[in-house]
Amino acid sequence: MNNQAQSRRNEHLTWVYDQLQGCGEIYLEPAHLRTLQILALPTHVSDDGEVLFHPRFFKAHPARVLGEYPVNQSVMGPANPPRGVPPLCDPPSLEKELWNHVHIADDGDRIQAARDSLADRLSQYWHEWTCVQRVHGHIQSHILAPRFGRPEGSTLCELGALQPSLLQEVASSNDPPTASTCANNMNWQIEDLLEDSSRNTNPHTIMSVLTEVDAGAEPASLTLHEVLAAVTMMRIRTSHGPWTSNAIHPLLMISYTGDGCGRITQVSLHGETLILQYSPLWDFQHSDSAPVELFVRYYLSGLGSVSLMDYANPDADALTGLVSSLTLDTTAGGSSEKMDVS
């Protein structure tokens, strides 16, 4: 992109960011986002759980890495801080609390004590920010834990095409904040930034977004925090650094929401056109069905090529046609069901 086009793009992203900052809605439907010149499109999911983005800038790591590289518990001891994987706790239940109070002989007293304890535990369990951090921390612990089959001192991160970067070194003091409670007085923040370690080859990046919002209440929409985080990172990457002149900026956004759900969104900036292709919400409330390995594999993504000839500065109508085959109704809130790909 020439300097004039870059300047025009930066002005447009600033305008979009300002509109989002003044937005009174917490759930943004695709039609609403279109008024901000953002294309938001729900996507299909394949039989093996992969999100079918198009164009496919990010490809989940092909191996089942958690089974192939078991956690190495032997390196955890007094000389090493524990780096295992904390359990992904299921919601408290009355059955569990009755078992915890089995020492109370009287049936009525035991049931009442169990109910009181359950109410307290549920309140703690479903506190939105605690819920978000529990799921996010579980995924990151899997990635950072020492594992058999990996070189000593390495983690699963080295299996991916992108490597961790310090957010404070990427963002400048003039950039918009990467964490805030201003939007609807709810917490959100960007974490786990992954970039090309050579800093001059691939414009791709991966990041986590944590938000207190209960995304399952409006599963067909994106949350304001997710969109704001995506625009924030695009402003950072297009205003300074090695990729400011790139016409295309691919970003994989892995979201964790206040209701214990997760979502994977491919964000791509084509000139001044921003596209968000988002998966359905996955449920992390039950450890036996939570798609932990799929999320880990997306952090370790391989990269699809960026074709300037095909995708540089396309207009909105052309981009709508490009991804129209992926548009369909979303499933019910918090569902772990896969989208129909037939």
Automatic annotation (TrEMBL):
> The organism sits in which domain of life?
Eukaryota
* Protein name, per record: Uncharacterized protein
Q: What is the lineage of its organism?
A: Eukaryota, Fungi, Dikarya, Ascomycota, Pezizomycotina
